[in-house]
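User: tokens in, sequence out, please.
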């Protein structure tokens, strides 16, 4: 529906860190657009295409994403600095600011 509101950007706007699975490039893209640290969770038995693997390797080398290591004690080391260099649409940032203001009123 054309006028349907999608809450994903609102949720991401108030996150401190985003965890996504490796099988969804759209989830990773939305998470990266939020400018929050992104950790990618491996999916058992998921076969990535060579192009997808190359893209993930590039994002990891740029420290845009980090992979979950399967050892829960390593979680703190994966909380990389938020990405500030990516261009995101102004409306996403504006929506996140408005949501944070609303949440501040009720906390």
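Assistant: Sequence out:
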């Amino acid at each position: 529906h054309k006028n349907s509101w999608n809450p994903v950007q609102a949720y991401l706007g108030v996150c401190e860190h985003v965890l996504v699975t490796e099988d969804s490039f759209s989830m990773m893209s939305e998470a990266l657009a939020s400018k929050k640290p992104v950790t990618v969770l491996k999916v058992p038995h998921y076969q990535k295409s060579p192009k997808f693997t190359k893209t993930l390797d590039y994002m990891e080398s740029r420290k845009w994403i980090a992979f979950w290591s399967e050892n829960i004690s390593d979680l703190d080391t994966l909380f990389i600095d938020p990405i500030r260099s990516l261009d995101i649409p102004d409306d996403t940032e504006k929506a996140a600011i408005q949501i944070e203001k609303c949440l501040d009123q009720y906390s």
